[in-house]
Design a protein that fits this description.
With 276 residues, the chain is of the alpha/beta class. The protein contains 12 helices and 8 strands. It has an 8-stranded mixed sheet, with helices on both faces. Helix 6 links the parallel strand 7 and strand 8. The radius of gyration is 21 Å and the shape is elongated. 32% of the residues are buried.
Length: 276
């Protein structure tokens, strides 16, 4: 039978799982004006604090995940990877081909999501933690019966908390190694830059502020100018100047190779976990 399109004007979104990722996405969707909070729902079974968090910005909170699914056109499974199968199985009887199903659980493949749910209209999304501040890098892959229109709708949802990219699912382990784990690498870099500032004589608070803003500014330049980062690096590297002296030290410490190795190591670990 033909898959029915989801109405962009009246669709409702439900989260199975009421953790930080669900909260970040819900807040982003509301803040962007894409959906009013009364068209978003989740379920909280016992944690009063999580109920209060969602209710504080107008999201409906039910007592069971089945109610969330019945209420929703787009259902986002935002639980930890180890409990995805259980979460899907518990609501399986309320799922149907008329709903778009989304999973943000790392390492859980579309074929398993489709098998557990008995539904093929699934979309897998890999976001990262900067979703909490509206700057996520998310990657999407469509399941067997998910349409391009479904993908566009989910792109709009996740676009409210950052940027959405599309990739074949076979790339998701590499995606995990880069953007999924990547924020941790950058946090380490910011911490190290700040420590360097302190070692050079700066107060800690000033050093950390300069380090974090410098990383933000550099990333924004790459994103907005469209220039290759190597070109931007050359633009600030004067002959015999301070920057080339610092870059020389980074090269001696295999800075680029170390970052590359970190991405590959995390991708390999993701591949191991997805096969276990």
């Amino acid at each position: 039978m033909e898959t029915l399109p989801i109405s962009a004007e009246s669709f409702k979104v439900g989260f199975v799982g009421a953790g930080k990722m669900a909260e970040s996405i819900a807040r982003g969707v509301v803040a962007s004006g894409m959906l009013p909070p009364n068209r978003i729902s989740t379920a909280v079974h016992s944690n009063l604090n999580r109920r209060q968090v969602f209710e504080s910005f107008g999201v409906k909170v039910f007592s069971s995940s089945e109610e969330v699914v019945r209420e929703s056109d787009v259902v986002i499974f935002s639980v930890k990877p180890q409990v995805v199968k259980k979460a899907i199985t518990e609501v399986k009887s309320t799922l149907s081909k008329d709903k778009v199903l989304v999973s943000v659980a790392a390492g859980i493949k579309l074929k398993d999501l489709q098998e557990w749910s008995g539904q093929d209209r699934f979309i897998r999304v890999m976001p990262n933690t900067p979703a909490a501040v509206g700057e996520a890098a998310s990657v999407m892959s469509l399941g067997t019966a998910a349409t391009e229109e479904d993908g566009a709708l989910v792109t709009k949802l996740f676009g409210s908390v950052g940027k959405m990219f599309k990739a074949d699912e076979k790339m998701f382990d590499a995606v995990t190694g880069l953007s999924g784990s990547g924020p941790a690498y950058i946090f380490l870099a910011i911490e190290a830059l700040a420590d360097g500032g302190v070692a050079a004589g700066l107060p800690r608070e000033l050093a950390l502020g300069l380090a974090s803003q410098t990383v933000l500014g550099a990333a924004t330049m790459v994103s907005k100018t469209g220039k290759h980062p190597g070109v931007l690096k050359d633009d600030v590297t004067s002959p015999g100047g301070t920057t080339i002296a610092g870059v020389h030290e980074l090269e001696k410490g295999s800075f680029r190779a170390t970052l590359m190795n970190a991405v590959v190591a995390a991708a390999n670990r993701s591949r191991e976990l997805s096969q276990s």
